[in-house]
Write a structure and sequence with these properties.
It contains 19 helices and 25 strands. By secondary structure, the protein is α/β, with parallel strands linked by helices. The strands form 6 sheets. It has a 6-stranded mixed beta sheet, sandwiched between helices. A 6-stranded parallel beta sheet has the order 14-13-15-16-12-17. It has a 6-stranded parallel beta sheet with strand order 20-25-24-21-23-22, with helices on both faces. Helix 11 crosses helix 12 and helix 14 packs antiparallel against helix 18. The longest helix has 19 residues. The relative contact order is 0.08.
């Protein structure tokens, strides 16, 4: 059974009856590893064939579907058709020519990619992919189509090899005959197996919205969502939804795709909420890069509360924290019916694991309606704040109704296997003892390349650490030629005083991100080494990461092991290479020493 990427359940409302019958036949009769997309814009020019199929042994197929009946079709030639519609007679492009143009334009673009070209033989430099196109007439039989065309003209107007008729796609038609008809749409004998690697290159060209940006990657390889991610992203639907994804599983990528979809399908703006100010700024840059800044508004949670307070001129208590008091004023206004509408058609919550139950309850109340779209994304292993209360409640108890609409992403694509295995082995015992019993502890599955083992350095002092960290950064620069993509992560701003002195001495450009104003102006595009706390790095990623002063434990901590979740987050920010340094002596340093000894 083939995979229909956007499921029949999700797209049934916009399908015609004929399109639905064809989708069912394609899904049932094509091979298991065939992929089918329905009504999704293709390529950067957003051409719109009804179906696109990647067949593992045949190649690429474009299908245009027409539910016309014979009474609708008045006249036709190779270029155009005349139709009888409720609005009167209309002239349209011949669907065979229409789908031919879709196919040719797409294939011409594919042929420019060296990875899709034949590397040897008489076809060297040509597209290493067979492709075909055709039209499906779901309410017209083959005989009716032949009778409609003048004798001898059928193959010039609606070529039999390029058309599939109603009586050739019914359930009574043998599967072999149906698949043979599709295979007959190919006009050449050339075939090249579509390997998983080639399939993903095709997916990136066909559907640019699923691409993962290659910025800051040494290899420059363009990656795409895996099939689970794409299927999940394209079939989320309205209402309340929850995604539990491990670090590096593409939660943010799915969030950005969802924003793109919602921006095109809702009337009012879309709201994106997260906990960290730096992550909010990063997401805001990503949204702007996609041209969605007017339709998608990104806030860190307390920033959103403050904006609502200003908009509605709510009274805020002057005692204590302004952020907490702004939330309380907002919450009270909703409870009293002063605020009944959020002003948004949808909300997406990243870092849901760091949201207080009252925060989530407030958001759920504002989006508790049939059309209210709410997506919550979380990973309990990355909860850094209020650890003793982090998601220590059921989602239903705060009004998030997502039973049967929860997905789990286990695959980690960000980190190399070496980095992920180290990070999880270091943290696993803590997670086993402290995770929320109401929610499953999801073990990450490594899907990245093997990579180099993390460098673990037990330093003599802060001065020694600074020298070795800056030397490591300079070594990375000598390989990549740019400072962008490097980060130094620390437990607090005081941990990098010696390092910043050394960076200044060496003339290395760096950007600090500790104060609120610095977090609000954070940019992942700056060609400088980024200095952030472990907490502020959550949700971000960098090819090269140095985690410094790793054995630091806050004086107010009940036990030293409470530092482990923050270290896990910091370790998993590195997509290529990781350096971990420490110089204090405690249980954390002993654990790091043991890890270093095992490498």
């Amino acid at each position: 059974m083939a995979t229909l990427i956007n499921s029949l359940t999700f797209c049934a409302e916009r399908m015609t009856g004929g399109e639905r019958r064809l989708a069912q036949r394609l899904e049932a009769l094509l091979p298991d590893d065939a992929l089918i997309w329905y009504d999704i814009p293709v390529g950067k020019r957003y051409r719109h064939p009804d179906f696109v199929i990647i067949h593992p042994t045949e190649g690429l197929i474009f299908l245009e579907v027409k539910d016309w009946r014979m009474a609708t079709l008045l006249k036709a030639d190779p270029q155009s058709v005349m139709l009888d519609t409720p609005e009167g007679q209309k002239t349209a492009i011949n669907p065979v020519e229409q789908v031919r143009q879709y196919a040719c334009a797409t294939v011409n673009q594919l042929a420019k990619d060296l990875r899709l070209q034949q590397s040897s033989g008489t076809g060297k430099g040509r597209l290493d992919l067979a492709w075909a196109y055709g039209v499906v007439f779901t309410n017209i039989t083959r005989r009716q189509l032949r009778d409609f065309c003048a004798r001898g003209e059928t193959d010039t107007i609606f070529p039999e090899a390029l058309t599939l008729c109603q009586d050739e796609m019914t359930e009574s038609v043998l599967p072999e005959a149906f698949t043979r008809k599709l295979a007959g749409m190919f006009t050449t004998r050339f075939r090249s197996v579509v390997t998983p690697q080639k399939r993903d290159i095709l997916r990136r060209h066909l559907f640019p919205e699923i691409a993962i940006s290659p910025k800051n990657e040494e290899s420059g390889i363009h990656r795409v969502m895996d099939l689970q991610q794409e299927i999940l992203a394209r079939n989320l639907g309205d209402g309340h939804r929850v995604i539990h994804g491990v670090a590096g599983s593409g939660k943010t990528l799915i969030l950005l795709y969802r924003c793109l979809y919602l921006a095109e399908n809702v009337t009012r703006p879309v709201l994106v909420l997260c906990f960290n100010i730096t992550l909010a700024n990063y997401l805001r840059e990503c949204i702007a890069d996609k041209g969605l800044a007017q339709k998608v508004h990104v806030h860190h949670f307390h920033g959103w509360c403050a904006s609502v307070v200003r908009q509605h001129k709510l009274t805020v208590s002057q005692d204590g924290s302004y952020s907490d008091n702004s939330f309380t004023a907002f919450e009270t206004a909703v409870s009293q019916g002063v605020i009944t509408d959020s002003g948004y058609d949808a909300v997406l919550i990243d870092e849901g694991h760091d949201f207080d139950s009252r925060w989530l309850s407030l958001v759920a109340r504002l989006f508790d309606n049939p059309s209210g779209s709410l997506l919550l994304m979380y990973d309990d292993a990355q909860s850094l704040y209020r650890r003793e209360r982090a998601l220590n409640f059921t989602l239903a108890s705060v009004g998030i109704q997502a039973v049967g609409r929860t997905a789990i992403l286990r695959a980690n694509y960000r980190n190399t296997r070496s980095i992920l295995n180290f990070a999880y082995a270091f943290s696993r015992d803590y997670f086993d003892q402290h995770h929320n019993q109401e929610l499953p502890l999801v073990d990450p599955e490594a899907y990245g390349e093997e990579g180099e083992a993390p460098e673990l350095l037990h330093c003599d002092s802060a001065d020694d650490e600074a020298l070795r960290v800056v030397a490591w950064l300079e070594s990375r620069y000598s390989q990549s030629g740019q400072w962008n993509g490097m980060a130094v992560l620390c437990p607090n701003r005081f941990s990098v005083q010696k390092i910043t002195e050394q960076l200044e001495k060496k003339g290395v450009p760096f950007s600090v991100c500790f104060e609120a104003l610095q977090k609000k102006t954070y940019s992942h595009k700056a060609n400088a080494v980024q200095l952030l706390t472990y907490q502020s790095s959550k949700g971000l990623e960098f090819p090269f990461v140095a985690v410094v002063n790793a054995s630091f434990v806050h004086q107010g901590a009940e036990e030293e092991s409470t530092a482990i979740p923050a270290l896990y987050v910091a370790f998993t920010r590195a997509s290529k290479k990781l350096l971990v340094t420490w110089y204090r002596k405690n249980s954390i340093s002993l654990q790091l020493d043991r890890s270093a000894g095992r490498q």
